[in-house]
Amino acid sequence: MKFNVGCKLSYSIHQPSTLIFNLKVIQNDYQNILKETLEVDPPLDREEYGLSFVENQYFRINAPLGKLSVSYNATVELSHVYVESETVQEVPPAELPLEVLPYLYPSRYCQSDKLGNMAQSEFGDLQPGFSRVTAICNWIYEKVEYLSGSTDSQTSAYDTATQRAGVCRDFAHLGIAFCRALNIPARFVAGYAYNLTPPDFHAYFEAYLSDRWYIFDATRLAPQSGLIRIGTGRDAADVAFATFFGAVQPEEMEVFAHQVFEPGVKAPAFTTRAIATS
Amino acid sequence: MKFNVGCKLSYSIHQPSTLIFNLKVIQNDYQNILKETLEVDPPLDREEYGLSFVENQYFRINAPLGKLSVSYNATVELSHVYVESETVQEVPPAELPLEVLPYLYPSRYCQSDKLGNMAQSEFGDLQPGFSRVTAICNWIYEKVEYLSGSTDSQTSAYDTATQRAGVCRDFAHLGIAFCRALNIPARFVAGYAYNLTPPDFHAYFEAYLSDRWYIFDATRLAPQSGLIRIGTGRDAADVAFATFFGAVQPEEMEVFAHQVFEPGVKAPAFTTRAIATS
Amino acid sequence: MKFNVGCKLSYSIHQPSTLIFNLKVIQNDYQNILKETLEVDPPLDREEYGLSFVENQYFRINAPLGKLSVSYNATVELSHVYVESETVQEVPPAELPLEVLPYLYPSRYCQSDKLGNMAQSEFGDLQPGFSRVTAICNWIYEKVEYLSGSTDSQTSAYDTATQRAGVCRDFAHLGIAFCRALNIPARFVAGYAYNLTPPDFHAYFEAYLSDRWYIFDATRLAPQSGLIRIGTGRDAADVAFATFFGAVQPEEMEVFAHQVFEPGVKAPAFTTRAIATS
Amino acid sequence: MKFNVGCKLSYSIHQPSTLIFNLKVIQNDYQNILKETLEVDPPLDREEYGLSFVENQYFRINAPLGKLSVSYNATVELSHVYVESETVQEVPPAELPLEVLPYLYPSRYCQSDKLGNMAQSEFGDLQPGFSRVTAICNWIYEKVEYLSGSTDSQTSAYDTATQRAGVCRDFAHLGIAFCRALNIPARFVAGYAYNLTPPDFHAYFEAYLSDRWYIFDATRLAPQSGLIRIGTGRDAADVAFATFFGAVQPEEMEVFAHQVFEPGVKAPAFTTRAIATS
C-alpha cells in the first residue's frame, strides 16, 4: 500500500531563531520511502541528525529574520505485518529485551507511577495480552472526549485521566501511561494519517507484546494500516514536529496523507487484527 | 437509639500555642444530647463559638508550654428519618433553596469544576435521584482502596480520582466533588461512628435531595444509623477536629462510640433506605 | 467620593437555564448606595438572596429559551477609612475574633496549606504587619505577569505560584494564599474598579489586621480608593459575577465605573496609606 | 584522588521477582576503575547492559523467593578537569551539539515547560554563563529545605518549586528544570558522594556549558570533587539505583564512599571553580 504524505509549514521569524523539525518519514523494515523531497525557503542550511535511542530524523535550521517555509513530500510504501491478536502476549519484566525496559519508566507526559492504582483498578483483572491493551484503548475512546482545543502542550496523562477531554497526543499519552503502569512497555509515535479529518499530524502509540511493537490508536480517527511513521519516543517531548528557540510565529500549516492509486489495492480499513511494526 | 461517644486527646505544647477544636456533638432535630462533659487539663479558659454557615461547635484554647489534655464525653439520642429511597429526587438548580447553592461550588478538597467531565462520563447517563448518589458511592467503594496512611492533609478529590487510595475523608471528598459536578449539592460531615475499627473520628457526606439532606458513606465502615454528627462544612477545611497554631505535638488520641444498651433496641445496621438528617 | 458603576450583560439561552448573578454593589458602613437600577429583559422574576457568611447580594433568574439581558446601574458614595500603615498590625491566632478564623483556612483557589513553606521562605523573615502584606503584593506584582487569557476558571494560587502569569483573580488568590499561610486572615473581594482598562469586573483582596479588614490589590490596575465592592468570599468560588446551569452563551459584556463629578473632589489616586473597609 | 565506594543491599523476595540495579561506577575519561567486585547472594545470573543514550551500567536479576543480597565495591581514581568559571559560557540552541538537544526537553520529574515563566522571573535577567547556573543552585539552597522524608518517588520539580522541601534528587530535578527552561541543557547524575552524612546514594546534576558538561550540586552536602558517578539520565526515572517488578521488601542498605589514603593528597574540598566531566 502506497501513500503520498507531506506538509507545508510557514513561519514569520521576528528575530534570528533556531527551529528543530521532526516531520520526515523514517525508512525501516515495513516503511519504504520511494521518493522524498524537502524544500526550505529561503534555502538555508539544515543539519540533519538522528538520536541513538529514538527513531526520528530531526533537522535543525537557524533562520534569520523574515519568512520561512518548509515543504515536505514523500511517497512511501508500507508493508505491515499482521498477526492474529489472540496469539499476541504480554511479556514479564524478567524476559523483556533489555533495550525496551526504558519504555516501562514514567516520562514527562506519561506519569505511569502516579496512575498505578487507577490502571490496576480499571484493567488489573483483565486477561493479559493484546486484548488488554485493546481494552485500554476502548476505555479511553469511551471515556475521553476528543475535543480540539481542550488541551495544550503542558497537558499530561495524569490530567487527561480526570479531565476526560483531549486530542490525539493526549489519547496516546494516556494509553502509554496505563500500559507502563501494568508493566507493558509502550512508546509514543508521531506520524501522518490517511484520511484524517481535519488534516493534521497524528499521534498514536505502540505497545511491546510477544517479541515486537504493535500499533494502537485509541482515537479511532484513522485505520491502523494508514498510519505512516515519522518517529517514536517516550512521549511527545521526544517527537514534537517543530520546536522553536527564538521569536517564531507559525503562519500556515498544511498536512496531507493520500493513498496512491494502485490497481487492485484497497483503501486502508480498520481491523481487529494486530499490526506489528518491528 | 442512644450512643455514648467521646474522645481523649493529649498534646505536648512546646511553646505557647492556640488550638481550635471541633469535636463536640451538635444538638439538632434528630440528635439530642442527653448528657455531655468536656474537661480540659490544665483547666484553661476556652472560647466556644459557632459560625453562621456551618453547624459546628468550635472552641479555642490558648495553651501555655507543657501538657494539654482534652476529654469529651456525650450521651446522644438519635432519631433519624427514614425515607423510601426511590422517592428521593434530585432538584434542579432552578428550584434549589437559595441557602444550599454554596454547596454546588468547588472547595479546597472538592474540585468539582475539574471533575466535571469525569462525573459526566461515569455517572451522567444514570437515572437522577438517590440511586445515582448511591452509584457514586459504589463506584468509590469499588475503585478506591481504603488504605491508612496513603494520603495526607493536602490530598484532595482531584488526587483521589486518579490515585485511587485514601481514607474516610478522601472518600467523602470524592463523593462530594462528583455530586457537585452533577449539580447535586453536597457537604462534608465529621462525626463519631459506631463500631469503627480502629476507633477514630469519621468523615462522610450528605447530598441535598428532594427537600433535605441525606447521609451517604462510601467507606461502608459503619452503618449509617450509627453516625453521630460533630458538624458539617464544605469540606474538611471547615471541620478539622483540631487545628493548631504554634508548636504542638500530638501525643495520645482515643476515640470511642458505643451504643447504650436499651431493652428491645437493636444495634445499628446497614440499610438501603435513605436516611435524612434535616 | 461618588461613582457611577454598572454593567450590561447579554446572553443567548439555548435551553431553559438557571443563572445566578452577583453584580450588585453592597451597602455597608463605607459604601452608600445613592441610586440603583436593575433591569432584566425579558422582565423575568428574580429571587434575591444573601448568605450569612459572605457579603454578597445574589439573585437567581430562571430563563426560558431566547435572549436575556441584565443591566445594572448604581451611584455609590464611598467613605473609606484611612489609617497610617505603620500602626496596622498582624493579630496572633490567639486573639483573632472567632468569626474571622475561617479566613485562615485553605479554599478552592487559595491552597495556603500547600504554599506554607514557600510563604515562609519568601516572607517568613519580614517584619509582621501591614508592610508584610504589602511585600507580598509587591512580590506578586514583580514576579507574576498580568496577561489576559493566560489562565482560566480552574487556575488556582498553587498554579500561579509557579506559572507566574494571570489576571486579577489570580493575583488576588495568590495574595490570599500567602497571607493565610502566614496566619493572616484574608478574603477575596469582587468589585467595580475606577479607570480599569479595559473595563471589566475586578478582583482584589482584604487582609484582617489590627481590628479590621484592609484593602490590597497586587495588580496596581486601579487606585485602592476607586474600588467599589460587590461582595466578598473565601475565593472566587463564592463571588462569581455570573454562574450558569444550563446552555447559556454569553454574548455582550459591558462594565463601567466612572467618578461622579463633584466640585473640589479629586480623582482617586494610589496611596501607601492603609485603607480599611470595616 | 582515589576513592573506595560501594554498597550492600539486602531484600526479602516474597514471590519470584525481577530487579534492575544501577549502582556500578562507570568507567570514563575522568573516572578510572582500579578494582571492582560485585557479589550477588545467592549467586544468581545477572544480565548486564547499557543503553545507548545514557551512561549507566544496569544489571537485571530474576530472583526466586527468599533472601537476596547485592554487595558492590570499587576503587576509583578521579581526574576532574578544573576550569576557571568566568570562562564557562552558555551556548545558544543554534550552536549546541545535536546530541545534547534532548537535554533541553522536559522530562517526568523536570517539567521545564511548566516552569518557564518562573525561571525567567527569577533568573532571566542574570548574566548568562556558569554564574547563572550557580545562582540557580544558590536559590535552591536558600529557598528549599533539605528534609529527609519530605518527598517521595512521585515528587517532581514542579512540586518542589512551591513546596520548598526535598532531598538530593528533588534539588537536582529543580536545578535541571530551571536550566532547561533557560535553554541550558541539563542532566541528572546518580553517584556515590564522599563524606555524605548519613551515608546514602547521592543525586546531583550537570549543565552543558561551553563545550562540555559541568557538575552542579545545590545541596552542598559533598564537595564536587568527591562525587563518583554511577550514571546519568534525563532525570531520576532513568537512573534509579534499584527498580523492582514483583513483591520485593528492602531490608538493609549500606552505602559508603571513603577516600583512599595517598601521601600528599588532600581531602576533597568545596570549590568555586568549574569542574567538567566530559
TrEMBL record, chains A, B, C, D:
Pfam families: Bact_transglu_N_2 (PF21295), Transglut_core (PF01841)
Xref: SUPFAM superfamilies: Cysteine proteinases
Source organism: Desertifilum tharense IPPAS B-1220
InterPro entries recorded: Bact_transglu_N_2, Papain-like_cys_pep_sf, Transglutaminase-like
Domain of life assignment: Bacteria
Domain annotation Transglutaminase-like: ranges: 160-220
PANTHER family: BLL5557 PROTEIN, BLR5614 PROTEIN-RELATED
The protein's name: Transglutaminase
